[in-house]
Write a structure and sequence with these properties.
This protein is of the alpha/beta class. The chain has 7 helices and 12 strands. α1 links the parallel β1 and β2.
């Protein structure tokens, strides 16, 4: 299958780290040049953003660059005839049996899958007790209906890539929030599954699960600070009502399904 590693031209040390990790697992990959939002002009950045639309953020240059890097990966994937693609950022650590998971995912993924999150950010998220999407390599495939940030490793189907591109004509939130936060307003809600335990984790939190080989890479994804709730009083009221209803719906759905909050571990 296709495997892409996103990497800035200036970050050769990060790419060497990623290359060693994937080569050690016998996994072939393609490096995709990431977008450095810090080199974009103010006009170029503004043209990308949905801000100040209700629910949108004034994303930082680093967040825009990160998002556009993923957009280019989705586009590149759809130019191929591959059924699935795995997309990784360059500061990941890989878990056990990842080569088995990535061997032929189209043979075991649930039919409705848009995205399979391969990563954990070690935050509590509502999850079902049972493996709703089956098992692979001793790991459960479960529906992900709550916020689980991080875009360092995920598997994408063709219909999922098409859906994500339609969600990204204007950038309203960080790419990980668009992918993995059901509270974010998007044109089309992707169907997301989570592999549990996860098979990758970002370097900056790797020590929390016992890894001692952290490289100390600094995060490039510096968040923006401003969120818009709308420009006019009517827009602000409408957004707040819709947001509260969305939160209430998500909580009620998780309660009906018997989901409980817990941390996805890394192995």
């Amino acid at each position: 299958m296709k495997i892409y590693i996103l990497n800035l031209e200036s970050d050769r040390d990060r790419f060497e780290h990623a290359a060693r990790a994937f080569e050690a697992k016998g996994l072939a990959f393609e490096r995709l040049a990431a977008v450095d939002g810090r080199k974009m002009t103010a006009e170029e950045l503004s043209a990308c953003l949905a801000y100040p639309a209700a629910g949108s953020y004034d994303l930082s240059p680093s967040q825009v660059g990160c998002y556009l890097s993923h957009v280019h990966a989705w586009q590149r994937f759809l130019e191929t005839d591959a059924a699935t693609v795995a997309i990784f950022e360059d500061d990941v650590h890989l878990g056990e049996d990842i080569e088995q998971v990535l061997a032929a995912p189209e043979t075991w993924l649930p039919e409705d899958t848009d995205i399979l999150k391969l990563e954990t950010c070690l935050q509590k998220v509502p999850l079902p007790a049972d493996a709703e999407g089956g098992m692979i390599a001793g790991r459960r495939i479960i529906r992900l209906t709550g916020r689980h940030h991080g875009s360092a490793g995920y598997l994408l189907t063709r219909k999922g890539a098409e859906k994500l591109l339609r969600n990204s004509r204007k950038l309203a939130v960080g790419v990980d929030a668009m992918l993995f936060n059901p509270r974010s307003e998007v044109a089309e809600r992707p169907v997301v599954y989570q592999i549990d335990p996860a098979i990758c984790i970002q370097d900056d939190i790797a020590d929390q699960c016992g890894l001692v080989s952290r490289t100390g890479f600094q995060s490039h994804n510096v968040p923006g600070r401003k969120k818009s709730h709308g420009v006019t009083p009517f827009e602000r009221l409408r957004y707040r009502i819709r947001d509260r209803l969305r939160v209430a719906f998500l909580k009620a759905r998780d309660a009906v399904r018997g989901y409980r909050k817990r941390v996805v571990t890394f192995r």
